[in-house]
User: What shape does this take?
Amino acid sequence: MSSKINKEWHDKNKMPANPAFEEKVKWHKEHQKHCSCRPIPARLAEEMKRKGIKF
Assistant: This one.
């Protein structure tokens, strides 16, 4: 599933190097709000679901 990328958002919002779980969650939740180029990765989505984090 590939949709239009929001290049401006991506250019201004790089994923941190070696991100902690919380950083990944924060980045991907913001990404979902501003860009539809891809979904949250399945493994991260599963972990978020197990921890009761909505996305």
Notes: The chain has three helices and no strands. The helical segments are 7-12, 21-34, 42-50. The chain has a mean pLDDT of 93.
